[in-house]
Structure formats: structure tokens, C-alpha cells
Amino acid sequence: MIGPTPTPMTVLDPYIQMAYVAESLVIGQAFAKAIGYSKEAPLVFSFRWCRLAKRLLSSWQNPDRLFMQHLTAADDEKKSHVLLPINTAPSVIYQHFYEATKPLFRVFGGYEFPEDKVEQIVNQFLSRKG
């Protein structure tokens, strides 16, 4: 069930961002394997989120996922980088994903998703993509 669409640039849905980052890591890894990228060299991913200031962290796409806190972004931009070994098993890819998204969510009052929740979300996403 999708909730009402918020005014553009006022809300950042953490679950949509998680899906984008997870998809980037999984597709990047698959592409690197397909073109014969060295299994010893890590893949380097960079992420940049901008125009964040004053946005509310809220799940509007899936209102069933209650987000109890009303957190607003203080910074306007956040970047992160993560190294992903090409041979990373799907069962632990969430750890790299967690490191990639941690700086983004900290913009919202220092918020940090619990790692076990991140693992659950990423694994659900991967099971749908598999």
C-alpha cells in the first residue's frame, strides 16, 4: 500500500534509498563478474545525496513500516564510499550496504538503522531480485 505522495523535496524515504543502494551493489557486482573483473580487486562504489536539508526521514511509499521518529536533515549533502570485494557472498553484502548508507541516515539527527534491520531489508530485497 502506497501512502499519499509528499510534496517533492520534503521527504526522504529510507526504504527507497536502501533499495537503490542495494541494487547498485548487486548489479555492479554482477556486471564486474560478467566482464571478467579480477576477483582479487575490490569494486569501489561512491554515493552522493544532495538537497537533503530540511527533509523529513519518513516512509511514504510503505506506510506500514512505521517510522516513529520525526527526524529532519541538517546537512544539504552527504557522500559515502564503499569497497565491495567482487566475490562477496550475497549473505553478507548487507554489511557493505550498511556502511554505504550509514552516513546518509546520520544526517537525520545522527540516526542509525539497527544493523539487523538493515540485514533483513537487504535480504528481502535480494530475494525479490533473485
Summarize the structure in short.
The protein is of the alpha+beta class. 38% of the residues lie in helices and 18% in strands. Strands 1-3-4 form a 3-stranded mixed beta sheet. It has a two-stranded antiparallel sheet with strand order 2-5.
Average pLDDT across residues? 86
- The unreliable regions are none
The major beta sheet can be summarized as:
3 strands, mixed
**Which percent range describes the beta-strand content?**
15-25%
Number of strands: 5
Main β-sheet, spatial strand arrangement: 1-3-4
Helical proportion, percent range? 25-40%
Structural class: alpha+beta
Order of helices and strands: EHEEEEHH
- Give the C-alpha Rg: 15 Å
User: What is the CA-CA span between the terminal residues?
Assistant: 23 Å
Tally of contiguous helical segments? 3
Query: How many separate structural domains?
Result: 1
Shape: globular
Q: Can you walk through the features of this model?
A:
This protein has helices spanning 14-34, 93-106, 115-129; strands at residues 11-12, 42-50, 56-57, 71-72, 77-85. The chain contains 3 helices and 5 strands, in the order βαββββαα. The model has no long low-confidence stretch (mean pLDDT 86). 38% of the residues lie in helices and 18% in strands. The protein has 130 residues and is α+β, with helices and mostly antiparallel strands. It has one domain (11-129). It has a 3-stranded mixed sheet. It has a two-stranded antiparallel ribbon with strand order 2-5.
